[in-house]
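Let's do one together. I've listed all components of the complex below, 714 residues spread over two lines.
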Amino acid sequence: MQRKSILAAILSLIAPGLGQLYNKQWIKGLIFLAIDALGIWYFAGHLYRAVWGIVTLGEKKQQLVKVGKVYKNVPGDHSIQLLVEGLIILIIFFIFVWLYVLVVRDAYKTGLIREKGGKIARFSQSVNALFEKNFPITMLTIPAIGILFLTVLPILFGVLIAFTNYSGPSHVPPKSLVDWVGFKTFVDLLTLKTWSHTFWNVLLWTIEWAVLSTVTCYFGGLLVALLIQQKGIRFKKLWRTILLLPFAIPFLCSALIMNNLFNGEFGPINQYLGYFGIPKIGWLSDPSWAKLTVVLVNAWYGIPVTMLLMLGVLTTIPRDLYEAADVDGATAFQKFRSITLPRILFITSPVLITNFAGNINNFNAIYLLTGGGPMTGEYQFAGHTDLLVTWLFGLTYANNKFNFASAIGIIVFLMIATVSILSYRQTKSFKEEDLVQ
Amino acid sequence: MRASRIGLTLSYILLIILSVVSLYPAVWIIVSSFRPGGAIYSPTFLPERWTTVHFTELFTDKSFMFGRWYWNTLKIAVFSTIFGTLLVTLVAYSLSRFRFKGRQKVLSLLLVLNMFPNLMALTSVFLLLNQFNLLDTHLALIIIYSCGAPVLGMFVVKGYFDTLPRSLEESARIDGASHMTVFMKIMLPLSKPILVNSAIGLFVGSWIDFILARLVLRARENWTVAVGLWELATNFRTANFTMFAAGCVLVALPITLVFIFLQRYIVEGLTAGANKG
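Okay, and this is what the predicted structure of the assembly comes out as:
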């Protein structure tokens, strides 16, 4: 009696839907058959070209061909478009294959039910199951399609570009073809002197920046929160609201405002310093000052958020701990060191690590303030305050070095992945302790 | 007692200094936007004469169409917020309340996607939009913002769903409610604070995005306010700083109001993130 299930599965393997028809699920079978026909018709025309496009990235160059008496520009293969189209078709193909597997499995399972003499699900019941048994899958379908095409596909493309020679001036379609070059971009980035010099310096500054900006925001926020929360301070709510204001202004605006405030020639900060006889400072044009300025501005924007968070955490610390400390005659500093700080660190350490990872990627803070500058001839298309991400952006949009930009993107990913894995393990280990709650 | 008095006085002085630092840039830009002339330099902090000419210019000038840009931005931001929040909710709810095959894989995938710098995806998003003839349309931005929302904002919302007790839906299920009913009638009302928080994030994000919007929107009349402000900041700043200041006020005002009035929900999101670990 094994036969029905196997036969149904084989039938659906030949053409999805046949098995369902055999199982007397007419509507379901016909729908699957229609999808199957549509898929085969589509992939017959496209799949080969997609694979060919991804593997070869095009073979025919754009060239001048003599037509009659004049030379005409005959367009060749556009490597990058071939790659994107190929990826789109491959993703659709994988969805199709997955559906195929599901349909075969469904035919097999229904066959099994028939063998055991059970009742076959009617079409309306199958539809119902979508909202009952398979509810989470149904809910995920639409977002999944969006994420697949607008996040997974672009990132996949971005990763693949790092392994090609897609860069100006000699390998930019449609004028010329792009080829696969393996790890050459990474090797160039790390060994060619001009590139590696820039890379290591930018990487170093990226790490310095991430540490500095995380630490300033974190402890700045903590100190401001402690200041407001102090016993005896009045109008706590007012102070909180005033100090929260920088966070309420969109960073796009405040960064551009700061850019003007710190303007070396006409900016008000230099103007006020001038009243005290201090000569003009190149806040954004001197390499060291520029680094300080971006950290300061980032702290200005970031401290309010941490303050808010810290104020929340401070209220969760039980009051009796402090009372007990008072009885023992502890000083304010001792109370802070032994009660407040450990609690705060314990609760907010995941935030600290997320912020660190976020700051590695903090494009806006640098791009809007200095644009990576002050530029320097020593670096390959980068300036003194460029982070890896802003360098990546500049390489893509100003200099057409797409492959290097992608390689840098992958390196940033590796950095953040490392930090995240460490943080994940740490929070795990934290969970096993029973300090809080 | 004396030591604490001194400490308190010092704290007040410090708080006043911090308040000045916090408020100064905003006050300066507002004052500048009402100052006659175009220069950034001004001998006095307050202008001798106040004028609204820079604001009217931004609405009536041929190259600046803030009225139109406001409308564009509002349209994009509202639709992205609605669809984005919907998608975030769907993903977060399924991944939080159900156990199914592949769940762990989906979670890891979302985690990994978040680790790539999203600028890396820009080139191919551009090519993709080109492929589907969506360049220079607002639809393109709405689609990208809403589809990107689950990747960026899912974990905070999921963390919130995780904290809701399981007994809620179990008792409803026993009473015969469908998954859809449980979701709509029980879970959604309970998760309002975090959904508002995620909606604010999406609204603000699409309001101030100038990178993608600048890449996608070509025709001037299709721009958003952020792109317009970027143009003001890069091409007009030196000659006409006061106009930039007025633009800045116009772009920031709605967002600042949203933040001040919905502060409660933003705090919710922050603490939800903190309790996650």
